[in-house]
Amino acid sequence: MNLYFDIGANKGDYTKYLFSIGAEKVICVEANAYQAKNIDKRFGNSVTVINKAISNNSGSIKFYICPECDVVSSCDEQWRTNSRFSQPDRNWVETTIDTITIDELVKLYGIPEHIKVDVEGYEYKALLGMTQNYSQVRFEWSEEKMEEIVLTLEHLIKLGYNTFGVIAGDTYHIQPDEFMSGEDMIQFMKDKCDPSRKELWGMIFCLRNEDAYVK
Length: 215
What we know:
The protein is an alpha/beta fold. It has seven helices and ten strands. It has a single domain (3-207), classed as Rossmann fold (3-Layer(aba) Sandwich), CATH 3.40.50. The strands form two sheets. It has a seven-stranded mixed β-sheet with strand order 3-2-1-7-8-10-9, with helices on both faces. Strands 4-6-5 form a three-stranded mixed β-sheet. The longest helix has 14 residues, at 146-159. It is globular and about 40 Å long.
């Protein structure tokens, strides 16, 4: 089966894109219960919706919902307190939610064509829950999380990913213009990002030698 993981699915717009490129089944992981229900209604049996947070282990974790802009809700404390979204007058609702790992998703549903992770500053912990290089990965980066961007890349390099590309923003159909080694990607991100600026963001694409292309 042509399977994909949409981790941090929010309203399901990326899932819609996946179906447009031929996905047969999408596993949508969404911590916000309201959005999880909406995804289920939107796509029906074509998706499996998991109302949990992705993390590095199973259990439970604090989840901070931003009612004014729920797309920025996150399990990351720094995202709430010291990111581009941490305005003094912004309200955050603290909840507790169960967690699941990428390894567990693979055991339950199989190996996907690719794994997309967009969890608002919590990408490093999310990808620590993946202990094998199952398939292509793309994850969101934000320059205020520069230290964790490097840690994430180092983790993926240890898993065997060796080819990396980057784009600004997360427009679904755009692919990187060029790819580079892991070491070069780490240096590129260090040169590009200024954590104190808190403006730049995008997606990093992570491939292995056997990956012939990126959709």
